[in-house]
User: Which sequence fits this backbone?
């Protein structure tokens, strides 16, 4: 067995994505550039150009076409990869359903960027969370190492349950930030992730026509197909758990659909996702040092929503403060929505405070996090469903 | 009571709604309420040509560098392209749609190029079948030569009787050398003689000659107009000694325009009366055309009547019904075109030689109004892949065409029109 110790490489989050796709041996990469994802495209092109990556990069005129090609190539049994962001993802919307409901194990990275208007290049999670009903597995990442690792794991999960998987990372906080990254050994990755073995009917040269379609069906059959998408979604947590365990054995890293941090005897728990998680970790540690029993859950998986894990961690906790760097207009923070929903069936329900934070990349400083914790600590119950925070200029 | 509608077991097997196979079973053509119809229109140049030339057609061939084929197409309706390229008043260019975009295509230069190109080739004598019947043509002007050419091409024995000492009629004596060099005219006439046409100069025909009784199956009277000749003589007198050609006309002044047979119906001012569609006179077997019928006209119109007469004479001899019925084809208007794919290009400079590359460049300016030139836009833009190419022609698959109309919209030449579907 190869050694777990290796030299780390200082690369940006976007380069980590490119290495993730390379190590996963994606064969077809239709991709269209958009800030802040562009250097992913550039790095992938360079890897192919340098002969380091044996893949076909397809230059497309839009993200809609990029996803269409992912769909076509995946149907024929090819492993595909693409990456986009924000408006590019929004343009894919129609085809995201086709990939999700069509049960095609495409893996895509979405670099979070807030949607216009007004225009901004900075991050928030609304772009991918707005796609949460399209039949895609949605995963959030805290670090660039996690981004790279999650891409590789995603193929395992996606190809097992036959659902596409979207790995999201924060624009600039991840994409353009440099981190020492452990780029896994290619042979080890190969042993972890064998070549895509599609269902027999999709195999080329199986004697079937080289043409695939999705016919029109009657209502009962349509209904049944939707049932199977939901059932596949329900198999994701187990498949993900297994993929993580196998990954841990080879690479020594593990993330979990929901990770608990200082959860023992916690009286107030912060629920958070994405790049701001690291900052919250630090503040939680500060509070613990000062004697306040604060904990944290990091939610990595948004679809399927890991209700069991949420219940396991949060049932019986007095208060939960949810950090949503996103908003479903007319309702509120999407993570808070899921947590409240998951906890409804629990006897000892915590008071759930929904904080809207950091939209459009607004900074979330330790002071803001501390103020939020102090605020929630003092209140018995939230006075409103969505609590807006100060924005640092 | 047990509620049977709930918790019905669904299939245990995971179902994926994408299957190997195609969706050709769904005939989307049934959804259509309007259909694209590919039908060539008449290019305005062709519509305006008195000789009935397929101008768009030969320009398209020149565009492709197919000069031989282009020449052959011109000669289908015009045996004297080198002449017409020089002397025609080109109504084609006046009606050219391109004039509304930048400048009209300089059609006459392309035609002149083809005519001259023809004379640079080795002579071809390509009469496939010989016929026994002899035809007499009186007058070797453009009408007579044209009629002779087309009859000879289908095998008739043609003799032209010319009163003057030179062949060519007005082209020889009425058009100055600077507009129509004599060697060009001689070369054109030689082409016609090469087909076996005999031209007897200095041979005036009088009514008493009775050609029909002397073994000729039909006669075409193309003696020209007395007025035209008078005009030439006047002009020649005024500019006496100006050129060899006009000077010689003075010498021919004595040679009168042959007096038409008094039995032939004529107007008060001496124009022969013919049936417009067939060019038949009141005497069976005798046809007439050119200036003899219309009075002073153009070379181009005369060439057109010569060809028309050849068709009538052939039908007369074969015992078929006379008369040519022509299909009414709508003319492609400027508004029918989609010029989004056309760049503004100035017309080629007309130099004397009008070299091959200049002719091709000018031909490339042709918009091919109303005529499919296989540009492939319909094929390229059809979102349903319903336009296909077969035998180098595009066609529409109506089984699947939904009638969106994109092909019609993107057709640069206005060939595809949308018609209401009849159910």
Assistant:
């Amino acid at each position: 067995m190869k050694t777990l110790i290796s030299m780390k490489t200082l690369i940006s989050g976007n380069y980590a994505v490119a290495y993730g796709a390379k190590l996963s041996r994606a064969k077809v990469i239709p991709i269209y550039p958009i800030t802040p994802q562009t250097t992913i495209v550039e790095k992938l092109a360079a890897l192919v150009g340098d002969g380091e990556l044996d893949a076909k990069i397809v230059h497309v005129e839009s993200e809609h076409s990029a996803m269409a090609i992912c769909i076509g190539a995946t149907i024929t049994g090819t492993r595909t990869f693409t990456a986009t962001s924000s408006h590019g993802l929004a343009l894919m919307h129609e085809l995201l359903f086709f990939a999700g409901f069509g049960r095609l194990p495409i893996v895509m990275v979405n670099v979070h960027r807030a949607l216009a208007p007004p225009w901004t290049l900075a991050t928030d999670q609304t772009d991918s969370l707005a796609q949460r009903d399209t039949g895609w597995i949605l995963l959030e990442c805290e670090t660039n190492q996690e981004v790279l690792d999650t891409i590789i794991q995603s193929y395992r999960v996606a190809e097992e349950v036959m659902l596409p998987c979207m790995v999201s990372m924060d624009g600039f906080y991840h994409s353009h930030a440099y981190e020492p990254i452990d780029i896994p050994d290619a042979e080890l990755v190969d042993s972890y992730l064998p070549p895509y073995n599609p269902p027999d009917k999709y195999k080329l040269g199986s004697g079937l026509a080289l043409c695939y379609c999705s016919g029109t069906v009657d209502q009962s059959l349509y209904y049944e197909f939707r049932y199977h998408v939901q059932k596949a979604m329900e198999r994701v947590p187990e498949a993900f758990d297994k993929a993580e365990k196998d990954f841990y054995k080879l690479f020594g890293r593990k993330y979990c659909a929901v990770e608990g941090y200082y959860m023992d005897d916690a009286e107030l728990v912060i629920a958070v996702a994405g790049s701001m998680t690291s900052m919250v970790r630090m503040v939680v540690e500060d509070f613990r040092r000062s004697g306040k029993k604060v904990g944290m859950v990091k939610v990595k998986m948004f679809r399927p929503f890991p209700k069991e894990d949420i219940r396991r961690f949060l049932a019986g906790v007095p208060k939960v403060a949810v950090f949503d760097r996103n908003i479903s207009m007319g309702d509120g923070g999407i993570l808070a929505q899921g947590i409240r929903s998951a906890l409804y069936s629990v006897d000892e329900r915590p008071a759930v405070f929904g904080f809207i934070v950091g939209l459009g990349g607004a900074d979330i400083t330790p002071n803001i996090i501390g103020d939020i914790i102090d605020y929630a600590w003092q209140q018995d119950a939230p006075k409103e469903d969505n609590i807006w925070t100060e924005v640092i200029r | 009571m047990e509620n049977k509608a709930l918790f019905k077991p669904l299939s245990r097997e995971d179902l994926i709604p994408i299957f190997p196979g195609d969706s050709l079973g769904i005939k989307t053509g049934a959804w259509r309420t309007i259909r694209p119809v590919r039908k060539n229109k008449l290019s305005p140049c062709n519509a305006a040509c008195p000789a009935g030339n397929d101008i768009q057609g030969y320009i398209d061939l020149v565009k492709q560098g197919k000069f031989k084929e282009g020449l052959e197409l011109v000669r289908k309706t015009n045996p004297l392209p080198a002449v017409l390229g020089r002397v025609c008043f080109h109504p084609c260019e006046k009606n050219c749609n391109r004039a509304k975009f930048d400048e009209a295509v300089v059609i006459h230069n392309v035609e002149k190029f083809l005519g001259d190109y023809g004379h640079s080739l080795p002579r071809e004598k390509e009469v496939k079948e010989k016929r026994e019947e002899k035809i007499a043509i009186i007058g070797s002007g453009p009408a007579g030569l044209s009629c002779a050419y087309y009859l000879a091409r289908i095998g008739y024995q043609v003799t032209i009787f010319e009163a003057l000492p030179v062949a060519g009629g007005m082209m020889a004596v009425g058009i100055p050398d600077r507009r129509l060099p004599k060697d060009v005219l001689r070369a054109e006439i030689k082409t016609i003689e090469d087909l076996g046409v005999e031209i007897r100069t200095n041979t005036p025909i009088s009514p008493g000659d009775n050609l029909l009784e002397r073994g000729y199956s039909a006669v075409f009277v193309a003696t020209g107009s007395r007025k035209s000749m008078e005009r030439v003589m006047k002009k020649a007198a005024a500019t006496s000694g100006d050129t060899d050609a006009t000077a010689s006309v003075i010498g021919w002044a004595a040679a009168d325009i042959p007096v038409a047979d008094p039995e032939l119906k004529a107007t008060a001012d001496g124009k022969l009366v013919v049936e417009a569609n067939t060019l038949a006179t009141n005497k069976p077997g005798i046809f007439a055309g050119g200036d003899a019928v219309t009075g002073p006209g153009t070379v181009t119109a005369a060439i057109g009547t010569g060809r028309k007469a050849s068709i009538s004479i052939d039908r007369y001899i074969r015992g078929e019904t006379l008369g040519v019925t022509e299909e009414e084809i709508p003319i492609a208007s400027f508004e029918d075109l989609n010029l989004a794919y056309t760049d503004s290009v100035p017309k080629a400079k007309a130099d004397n030689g009008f070299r091959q590359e200049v002719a091709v460049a000018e031909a490339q300016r042709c918009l091919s109004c109303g005529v499919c030139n296989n540009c492939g836009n319909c094929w390229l833009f059809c979102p349903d892949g319903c336009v296909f190419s077969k035998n180098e022609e595009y066609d529409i698959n109506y089984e699947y065409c939904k009638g969106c109309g994109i092909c019609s919209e993107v057709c640069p030449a206005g060939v595809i029109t949308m018609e209401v579907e009849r159910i």
Q: What stands out?
A: DSSP finds 16 helices and ten strands in chain B. The first helix of chain B runs from residue 44 to 48. Chain B has three domains: 28-40+372-420, 45-122+346-367, 123-336.
